[in-house]
Design goal:
heterodimer; A: mainly alpha; 2 strands; 72% helix; B: Methane Monooxygenase Hydroxylase, Chain G, domain 1; 3 helices; NADH_UbQ_OxRdtase_su1/FPO (chain A); ubiquinone (chain A); translocase (chain A); oxidoreductase activity, acting on NAD(P)H, quinone or similar compound as acceptor (chain A)
Chain lengths: 320, 130
């Protein structure tokens, strides 16, 4: 009986984190971006510095008419937001937050599982792009596909480097193996991983698939109301997952002073710092052009990732 | 024999919880869509259901022909991705006792193949978008 209760609690905690953390990142983006651009951002909803802005947005989205264009492939169009969103929920449960089993569920091949499931999310954008029967959506969907193919590879290679360093694919074990000197040792891999992850989320400066000045909003052009909100939620859930995963793989997860009792706090702090970087990059860099995007992945990130694998292998074998 | 069964059961136990979280996710989406249906208005007009193209009436076919420039990238991706998948099981054992130098040489052969392939594609102009 207590087992059932425990599993239920874990599921509930993961669902709560999945619904709350993306909103926190979204609100932080509203405010941080505004201040970086000399504005105040939302100030009214909820009273104190507009803290309830995203809740108000959610209420608004839920009341909007749900429009499916007459020419669209109805079922695929309607299911696409769910396909884009759910992989991030599933990934959250295997991410370790603190030591001594502070994780939704330990999965032996966790790293492999996470990378595989995260790849599914992009299918949602592809489904939306194709099913909308809109030229701009189709272009956006095709750009998404091209971007996925270019950036999945450096991400896989950088993750493989961490697996080599730790000698395991289990996420909690990877964090346990972590030593402080991994930071300089895996720095290049970490940068490649984080950058490639940003590109997979189509965040600026890699947001060519949704470039508003060219193709309106890419694959999401025809979406309204709740389904549009779910796509937005997927983007921010993606940021949460990417930041936590980068923390776990490259920044030592829960390691830090008093990690036995405060480990979870370290994971969250490091993840928050990375989320801030994601927001910061959005305000500071112009969008890369499509050919620059492709060239950057194939001629910069992939060679760097291969070099990191060589370095990891040599150090691991020689250091023994 | 009994022990292996036990280990296998433990292994799949983990995935059953992961499966449950997927079920929770599907329920969440179903409830959200169901509640949305109750909350929102429905008042379709032909103009609303028209494909959106910057405000003017759509021109030509909706599923437009488009030049897929990256099918060669797609081939490259498939080749590299399959290679990368094999890295993961290797990564967990390559530094184990008695492997050391041999696996290191193997790794450089492997990376060498990938690097030469990438250089060849680059030289052939495959990595140009336009």
């Amino acid at each position: 009986m207590s087992d059932v209760l425990e599993v239920a609690l874990r599921l509930l905690a993961v669902l709560a984190a999945f619904l709350v953390l993306p909103l926190l990142v979204g609100q932080a983006e509203h405010k941080a971006m505004a201040h970086m651009q000399g504005r105040l951002g939302p100030m009214y909803a909820g009273g104190f510095h507009g803290w309830a802005q995203l809740i108000a947005d959610g209420v608004k989205f839920a009341q909007k008419e749900d429009i499916v264009p007459a020419g669209a492939d109805r079922r695929v169009f309607q299911l696409a937001p769910a396909v884009a969103l759910l992989p991030y929920l599933v990934v959250l449960i295997v991410l370790p937050v603190g030591p001594n089993g502070f994780v939704g569920q330990v999965v032996d091949a966790g790293l492999f599982f996470v990378l595989a499931v995260m790849g599914v999310g992009v299918l949602g954008s592809l489904m939306a792009g194709w099913a909308s029967a809109n030229k701009f959506s189709l272009l956006g969907g095709l750009r998404t596909a091209a971007q996925l193919m270019a950036y999945e590879l450096p991400m896989l290679l950088a993750a493989a480097s961490v697996a080599m360093a730790a000698g395991t694919l289990s996420l909690p074990l990877i964090v346990e193996e972590f030593e402080w000197w991994w930071l300089p040792w895996q720095a290049v891999g970490g940068l490649v991983f984080f950058t490639a992850g940003l590109a997979e989320l189509q965040r600026p400066p890699f947001d060519m698939p949704v470039a508003d000045s060219e193709i309106i909003f890419g694959a999401y052009t025809e979406y309204t109301g709740l389904r549009f909100a779910l796509f937005l939620l997927a983007e921010y859930a993606g940021i949460v997952v990417l930041c936590l995963l980068t923390t776990v793989l490259f920044l030592g997860g829960w390691h830090g002073p008093w990690s036995d009792s405060l480990g979870w706090l370290w994971t969250l702090l490091k993840g928050t710092a990375l989320a801030f970087v994601v927001i910061w990059l959005r305000t500071s860099y112009p969008r890369l052009r499509e050919d620059q995007l492709q060239r950057f992945a194939w001629t910069v990130l992939i060679p760097l990732a291969l070099a990191q694998i060589a370095l990891t292998g040599v150090v691991r074998v020689v250091a023994q | 024999m009994g022990a292996t069964h036990h280990v296998a059961a433990d292994y799949f136990d983990g995935y059953s919880v992961v499966g449950l979280v997927a079920v929770v996710g599907v329920l969440f989406v179903a409830v959200a869509f169901g509640a949305g249906q109750l909350l929102r208005p429905t008042a379709p007009t032909p103009e609303k259901l028209l494909t959106y193209e910057c405000g003017v009436d759509p021109v030509g076919e909706d599923w437009a022909h488009t030049q897929i420039r990256y099918y060669v990238y797609a081939f490259l991706y498939v080749i590299f991705a399959i290679d990368a998948i094999y890295l993961f099981p290797w990564a967990t054992v390559f530094a184990a006792d008695g492997f050391g130098g041999t696996t290191l040489v193997e790794m450089f052969v492997f990376i060498g193949f990938l690097a030469v392939g990438l250089l060849y594609a680059w030289k052939k102009g495959v990595l140009e978008w336009t």
